[in-house]
Amino acid sequence: MNLGGRQDLRLHFVISAGLKLLSDQGISTAIGEFKELLDAGRGGSGFSFIDLAADRAGIRFAEIAADLNGGSRHLQNLLAGDSREQLFFPVVADLPENMPKEEFELRFGGVNSAAYDSLVREIDRRIDACQAYRK
User: What is the number of structural domains in the chain?
Assistant: First the structure.
C-alpha cells in the first residue's frame, strides 16, 4: 500500500514510527528534518514538506499504537477492516516539496523561522484531524 499515491511516503511513515518506538519523539523529528535539509543540498531531491508530514504522521501513529491506556485499542478498532489512509494519514498534495536549499531559505529562512513553524503547525493540525488521532 502506498500513501498519498507514493511509495516513499509509506517508507517515511513506517521508518518514523519505528524510530519513535525506539527513541524519543524529539530525536525522530530531528532526524526527519535533517534528512530533508540534506535533500535540499546539492544533488538531493529538495526539501519536502510532504515527506516531513509523512514522518510526523508516522511518529504520531507510533505514539497512539504504543499507548496502553486506550490508544492501541482505538487504532485496532478503527483500522479493523478499514485501511483507508485518510483515517491515519493527512492530506499532503498541496504541501511544498522538491525545494533546493536556496529556495527553501528564501521561502522559509530555515527550520527555526516563524514561516517554517507555521507550516509545521498546519501539518500537525492536519494530522490531528485524522480520525486515528482524535481524542
Answer: 1
